[in-house]
Amino acid sequence: MRFLLIGLGVAVVVWLLLIGALIAFGRRAAAKDLATLVPNLVVLFKGLIRDPRVPRSAKVWLWVAAVWIASPIDLVPEFVPVAGPLDDAIVAALALRYLLRHADPAAVTDHWRGDPATLERILRRRADDQGRNPAG
């Protein structure tokens, strides 16, 4: 349990440092997106895990992603700038991609608390992927 708390603490510090760096370099919009992304993903994952419209296989991937992100054990340690949080972001993206391919998009929309434009971009990407691969 102690390692989990340390890992979460390190992840939060890195997250805050990245937000501060974006603000320092004049990228306020990107800083705002990053600042709200993690809380929005937590709310989204929590809601989708409990939603009966989400297939069990997608819920398994959401659990795997949640445990991976919360775990202090990573392929690249969190304290490594930029690359540290990258494996967590990749795991979250893969879980969301799987979810978007196998779950009702309305379930995702119902649980998203972030900027609707961000979700629209994600869902539009899903539609583009299905257009290229009808078996999707």
Characterise this structure:
The longest helix has 23 residues, at about 1-25. The chain is built from six helices and no strands. Helix 1 runs antiparallel to helix 2 (about 30-50), helix 2 (about 30-50) packs across helix 3 (about 55-70) and helix 3 runs antiparallel to helix 4 (about 85-100). Helix content is about 75%, strand content about 0%.
In short:
The chain has 136 residues and is mainly α.
SSE layout:
Elements: H1 2-24, H2 28-50, H3 56-70, H4 83-102, H5 105-111, H6 116-132
Helix pairs in contact: 1-2, 2-3, 3-4
Please mark out the parts with pLDDT under 50 across 5 or more consecutive residues, or reply none: none
Radius of gyration: 16 Å
Task: Summarize the biggest pleated sheet.
Answer: none
Distance between the termini: 40 Å
What class, by secondary structure content? mainly alpha
Give average pLDDT, whole number: 77
Following the backbone from N to C, one meets helices and strands in this order, namely: HHHHHH
Shape: globular
Number of strands: 0
Task: Please bin the fraction of helical residues.
Answer: over 70%
Portion in beta strands? under 5%
How many individual helices?
A: 6
